[in-house]
Design a protein that fits this description.
139 residues, mainly alpha, Globin-like, 6 helices, 71% helix
Length: 139
């Protein structure tokens, strides 16, 4: 990711968490609207799951300049998710839900540069996660 895109992601995330509410819940609502069959994958209370999502995004976004150093944590997250039933094809839906959530929550702060920056980040993250799980079979 370029420094410009990193800055855009960080600034938009800072704005989002400081000026909106229920980002995680909105994300999951959007995800389940895109594909209701994903709802059973989330056995936990969605408030808790939503907080985990926001915490993980905080973690990643705070380390965008050293993304290569947190790849092992991202890979571990992917491995845990495969055991919950997450499949490769789900990543596209998650990306759509993320972008729709950001666009809605950022409202007037959203523009094509913001979208490009977030898509670049999600492409990196989902690529790492998919590669980390390609050779894992779930028993």
């Amino acid at each position: 990711m370029t420094d410009t895109r990193i800055s855009i992601v960080k600034n938009s995330w800072f704005y989002l968490v400081n000026n909106t509410e229920n980002e995680g819940n909105f994300f999951y609502q959007t995800l389940f609207e895109l594909d209701p069959s994903l709802r059973p994958l989330f056995k936990e209370n969605l408030d808790g799951q939503s907080q985990k999502l926001v915490t993980m995004l905080d973690f990643v976004i705070s380390r965008l300049h050293e993304l290569d150093q947190i790849i092992p944590q991202i890979e571990d997250l992917a491995v845990r998710h495969i055991h919950y039933g997450v499949r490769k094809e789900h990543y596209e839906l998650v990306g759509q839900a993320l972008i729709q959530t950001l666009e809605y929550k950022l409202d007037e702060q959203w523009n094509e540069h913001t979208e490009e920056a977030w898509l670049a980040l999600y492409s990196i993250l989902s690529g790492v996660m998919i590669r980390a799980t390609e050779n894992i079979s779930v028993q």
